[in-house]
Write a structure and sequence with these properties.
502 residues, 34% helix, disordered N terminus, Rossmann fold, globular, binds 6-O-phosphono-beta-D-glucopyranose, nine-stranded mixed beta sheet
Length: 502
């Protein structure tokens, strides 16, 4: 749809609309959505017609909500938490004046009638709520007639993760939602897709002629996808203990990284072309038998340890976590993609909490050069490796062998490195900016489709089922690189994980 640009804003300002945020007092709204909106507002991407309408069960009106958001934003941005931006109270006041509030229960039809009385024109309903409300809210919005686009406007629904907790529940949720809206109105958010470095994967692969001819089983030995965190469950024990590392991270974030790195070139950058290619490659991930799933996975849970010199208590001691919890805080998987391009190339995925370093990266490990010219070289020969560093160091590194200076013909590995921070002044960002902007402008390029989500659940389901029967969870010390069983997963193939934080 051609968006009508908003009067009085930058040339690329999103069209006028109301962002209705369900879960206005929630953590996501405070920590990520509002800081992202503030960043968009400062850079002129939200125009005069932009409004926020918070919905939650607290009382206190708009003033209460503004105060609640203001306090956090000041600490976040004032302390340079949002990538070094400084807090501009005048701009925040301008944005805060656009914030309104409606107190109501997500399950109360009266709340939707009240919403209907105050809401006019285009709107995005952002479901920043616990997942059990997703279907309910969409259905109630639908019943109240709030999802029908009126003339000249639009009505869209943005839904956070986790989208379902297995294939069956994801399908049920998709079916329930799609009774009330078209697929074109649904924006399933995966915040990894908003990260600059993740979006860069397409540019790197398809705007350079050097990589694509090598991006296949002829040249690549294997691929590693890592999302390692130093944080523990951070007050989210009640949610996390039911969900675990696999459900929390793998079918969403890690599978989107896998899709970006493994997809076929789309025939355009059009949203539907990209979504189709992402879904196609995810659907090609081999479905493992129960025995294969056990063999090709390792689960771990952290016990006490220390991270960066500070003691960290065991996961089981965290608030709202069962004292005998068997929930995994770490998972490693070995997957295969059954396509002409990737047959025989293992994809190793790992993610975990309370690890030695925060490190999200993709490692493309190339095969060793053939021949034996440098066989007798003193230093061990190291096959080329491309590391895409997604966060917190944003950049990439290609390791190559060069001749060791001196009389002898021996080689030594060196790194060709690029860091975003050296080349660009990246604007303050939480990663939600492009996603919020896209929902408002109607661009679904970075948005997950029902097919992507269902194919992801289908591929991880064998692991969930196998673990339900054989629940081995290995311990690892907080501050380590994860359980030894995860190292064995690669060691038995003669490989090793790329060191965290390197
Ligand atoms: C969220 C998970 O989706 O992603 C969290 O629920 C995790 O458990 C977070 O910490 C990681 O995101 P980021 O952007 O901090 O790497």
């Amino acid at each position: 749809m051609a968006a009508t640009r908003t009067k009085g804003a930058g040339p690329d300002a999103a069209p006028a609309c109301t962002l209705v945020v369900f879960g206005a007092y929630g953590d996501l709204t405070r920590r990520l959505l509002v800081p992202a909106l503030y960043n968009l507002f400062r850079q002129g991407s939200l125009g005069e017609g932009f409004r926020i309408l918070g919905v939650d069960h607290h009382s206190g009106g708009a003033t209460g909500l503004r105060r609640h958001l203001n306090a956090f934003l000041r600490t976040l941005i004032g302390a340079g938490g949002s990538e070094g931006a400084t807090f501009d109270p005048t701009r925040w006041e301008e944005l805060a004046r656009r914030i309104d509030y409606l107190s109501g229960d997500f399950e109360d039809p009266g709340a939707y009638e009240a919403l209907g009385r105050v809401l006019t024109g285009p709107a995005v309903f952002y479901l920043a709520t616990p997942p059990q409300f997703f279907g309910e809210i969409v259905e109630r919005l639908g019943r109240a007639g709030l999802l029908r686009a009126d003339a000249g406007g639009f009505r869209r629904v943005a839904i956070e993760k986790p989208f379902g907790h297995d294939l069956g529940s994801a399908r049920t949720l998709n079916r329930r939602i799609l009774k009330w809206v078209d697929e074109g109105q649904v924006y399933r958010i995966d915040h990894f897709m908003g990260k600059e470095t993740v979006r860069n994967i397409l540019a790197l692969r398809f705007s350079n002629a050097v990589f694509e001819p090598l991006w296949n089983r002829q040249a690549i030995d294997h691929i590693q996808i890592t999302a390692a965190e130093t944080v523990g469950v951070e007050g989210r024990g009640a949610y996390y203990d039911r969900v675990g590392a696999l459900r929390d991270m793998v079918p969403s974030h890690l599978f989107e990284l896998l899709a970006m790195v493994a997809m076929e070139p789309p025939n355009s950058l059009d949203a539907e072309a990209l979504r189709a290619e992402r879904a196609r490659v995810i659907a090609a991930v081999e479905i493992q038998s129960a025995a294969e799933a056990l063999l090709n996975s390792a689960r771990g849970q952290y016990h006490a340890g220390s991270i960066e010199g500070s003691p960290v208590a065991a996961y089981r001691r965290a608030a709202q976590v069962a004292v005998r919890s068997r929930t995994e805080t770490y998972v490693a998987l070995k997957l295969s993609i059954d396509t002409w391009r990737w047959a025989g190339v293992p994809f190793y995925l790992r993610t975990g909490k309370a690890l030695a370093a925060r490190d999200t990266e993709i490692v493309i490990q190339f095969k060793a050069a053939p021949g034996s010219l440098f066989r007798d070289t003193a230093a061990p020969r190291s096959p080329n490796r491309l590391v895409l560093q997604l966060q917190p160091q944003e950049g990439m590194e290609l390791s190559v062998d060069i001749k060791q200076p001196g009389a002898e013909d021996s080689v030594t590995p060196v790194k060709l490195a690029f860091r975003y921070a050296d080349a660009f002044a990246l604007p303050a960002a939480t990663g939600y900016e492009p996603l919020l902007y896209d929902v408002m402008t109607g661009d679904r390029t970075l948005i997950r489709s029902a097919a992507e989500i269902e194919a992801s659940w289908r591929a991880v389901e064998p692991f969930l089922k196998a673990w339900a029967k054989d629940g081995r969870v290995h311990g690892y010390a907080a501050g380590s690189a994860g359980p030894r069983a995860a190292d064995s997963l690669l060691a038995r193939d003669g490989r090793a994980w790329h060191q965290l934080g390197k």
